[in-house]
Amino acid sequence: MSIIVQKYGGSSVADSGKIKKIAELISKVKHEGIDIAVVVSAMGKTTDSLIELSKQISNEPPKREMDMLLSTGERITMSLLCMALNNFGVEAVSLTGSQAGIITNDRHNDARVIEVRPFRVLDELEKGKVVVVGGYQGVSYKRDITTLGRGGSDTTAVALAAALNAERCEIYSDVDGVYSTDPSIVKEAKHIPEISYEQMQEMSEAGAKVLNAQAVQFAKEKQIAIYARSTFQPGRETIVRKIPEGISRGVKSIVYENEISRIVLHGDNAETNSLLKFFEEKQVQLKELNYAKKGDRNKLSFLVSVRNIFNWDKIKDEMTGRFSDEINIEQGFGTVSLIGDGINKDNSILIESISLLESNRIQIAGIATTSFRISFLMDKSCVKEAVQLCHKHWIEEKV
Q1: Average pLDDT for the chain
Q2: Span 334-376, pLDDT tens digits
Q3: Which residues contact 18 (CB under 8 A, 6 or more apart)?
Q4: Does 171 have pLDDT greater than 70?
């Protein structure tokens, strides 16, 4: 049977009226004879509200209990959507992540999907029902409820599409695809009709909020095309799929991220290993890790994106107390990243970008590169100006 998977983000299901509208759209697809599985996020700002509610109870809520709390948001949406679909004469059934067979590791708040066992989903589809799955959540092999981190509903949708061997995965939100930068910062931002898995994944990991990086990784592994669309303003879309190398070279997008901290440790092997184990115990993801050794002393540095770490102040205080004089925590950074195929085939883009930023008195605190990305670390107060400068230079003026 031909299957498509659709995912609707929080803004698309923000109230009962929007849920009814989505039910109408889904019913039209179903009446065309297409089998459809739908993944939904929590309504509007529900997740943020639940996080704030937890803070009223505890300054350091246990991560397991946070997952139990946050997973309730999607359950509300999926049950309401099934009710609305039934009003349109479409049989529907709601399933939690665990009921849908989304198996994760045992990390809480940012779990990784390790397997999807979609037996229940397939059974319900074969009965002619629309299956509505709560996104952002799964169950660990220890049978605990887990959540997948911000944007995790994208991961649910693509992982499910891969497991169902779906024809495609459609991601619906309040924007009509991917842009060359954030349109709220640069009004000249350009819509990108098509982009490679690699470039999209780099954009997501560097701070772009349109698609989740793990979701793009799943899509790349299984060769599932992702269609990023606007829910209520159909027309344009961005298709994320395999594109031959060299077809689209140069800088294609400028991505930024705020709320970055840099951690630097000067210590011996034992202290280095202890710090890495500390962050693993706290389930904090590290970025741009650098290691150097001189004699019996090591220098270890890395970045941490603190925006979605619930108890960062507590972690920071514990880290400072444990490692005392050996560690330095630098806060208030942001990153601006240039994304594109072949961006580092030589040093010309890097050299020109450094010159552009320095000539505008933007001090660069660090640089990191991959095959598809050049990232500049800077004071977060400079991020907006740097995005505008880089977009004008590399995208607007290069057309």
Answers
A1: 92
A2: 999 999 988 988 899 999 999 999 999 999 999 999 989 999 9
A3: 12, 231, 232
A4: yes
Cβ contacts of residue 216 below 8 Å, gap of 6+?
158, 197, 200, 201, 204, 226, 240
Instruction: Kindly tell me the sign of the dihedral angle through the C-alpha atoms of 346, 368, 207, 224.
Output: positive
- pLDDT tens digits along 309-344: 877 888 898 898 888 778 999 999 999 999 998 898
Burial bucket for residue 300 (CB in 10 Å: 0-12, 13-18, 19+) = buried
Q: Model's pTM, two decimal places?
A: 0.88
Q: What amino acid occupies position 395? A: I
What's the first-to-final CA gap in the chain, in angstroms?
44
> What is the CATH number that goes with domain 3-174?
3.40.1160.10
**Size of the chain, expressed as the number of residues it contains:** 399
Cα atoms in the 13 Å half-sphere on the side-chain side of 202: 25
> Distance between CA atoms of 216 and 202, rounded to whole angstroms?
10
- Cα separation, 122 vs 116, whole angstroms: 12
- At 32, list the tokens: 């065309």
The highest-level CATH class for domain 253-396 is alpha beta
Handedness of CA 319, 321, 322, 324 (dihedral sign): positive
Q: Which of 144, 46, 157 is nearest to 100 (CA)?
A: 157
CATH 3.40.1160.10 in the chain: give the residue spans.
Answer: 3-174
Sign of CA dihedral 172, 177, 182, 185: negative
